[in-house]
Amino acid sequence: MKLKPILNSLLENDLYKFSMGQAIYHQFSDYKTTWTFKCRNKDVQFTKEMLEEIREQIKHYCTLRFSEDELAYLDKIKWLKGSYIDFLRLWEPRYEDFTITDESDYGLAIETKGTWLNTSMYEIPVLAIVNEVYFRMQYNYDELLDSYKEKLNKKIEDLKNGAYEVGTFSEFGLRRRLSGEAEDIAVQALTSNTFKDSVCIGTSNVYLAKKHKVSPVGTMAHEWIMCVGQGNHKHNPAYSNWYALDAWFREYGVLNGTALTDTITTDCFLKDFQLTYSTLFSGVRHDSGDPYEFGDKMIEHYKSLDIDPKDKLLLFSDSLNFEKATALNRYFKDKIKVAFGIGTYISNDTKVSPLNIVMKVTKCNGMDVAKISDTPGKEMCKNPAYVEYLQRCIEWRMNND
Q: Cα separation of 401 and 398, whole Å?
């Protein structure tokens, strides 16, 4: 390795990986998945030196193990159970699950195959490693960090003077951060300062939540709905949300209950998010499509079920900055509870453009899986025929069920 180790703890992952991990362990431990890396930037090229550094950093990540102190911290999270903590005591990443080559237009191809229990845990660490390697080896990192600090300080100033009115928000930037150092600086600054009309309650990064004694934040991701709903040969994929919500409720009851709506479109989600689940889940997360249309739609949905929207939460997490969050907060705050998960804008706002990289599950139990979302172009699937089939299933259900 030419760089220092980027990851030094298995806690350096988003909280929802542990929330989903426990449910996978208890209900779907035999599921197998394939995950595929993709860079959406048109002007980015990874060099051979970057490729080799990424390999070495992932090898180092695979040597990490949970410490007893880290496990004790996880055990204090009220919805995590002792059986899962004991599993994590034995768990280790496997480098054998990775294939890393230069066989792509941008010079980097990463794929992981294995149990869902393993491969789910790799997504966020891989993205964090790729980001930091790229920015440290492509640019003058010290100059980037200086521009990052300058922009962060301006955000802190505007939060203090009330130019931003975000209400409740969390830092969600681990996967696309400039570096571990940069994210650490941001979490420390945002959670230790007092702002006029905003409060940062925590971070999705469990390691930094532990370090700074703030709340770890996060529930479920698209992979949960995709694998539970589409990875079983007996399931009609247009009912993916029902299978996913049912399994989540069986695992957590009323705890840890923010549902993700847009995996196969929010309109299809609402077919299954009827009185029982709308009552049991504390709220929903928006991750694609027009946020105002989404929020208004959810408010009307709750009202149609005689549920007071002011008892429920809208968590917005789609490409947010403080300006967008302020506008959304002002629009919705008197109608429903509102919170924000803000990622790249906090963790990688510098004088150069951030990477737009993802790592998505593309197969489950040998079957294609896909996310449709509420924004055209956000889907990722290796088989266009499956996407067409999934869309036809959704269309049929919307018109006939």
A: 6
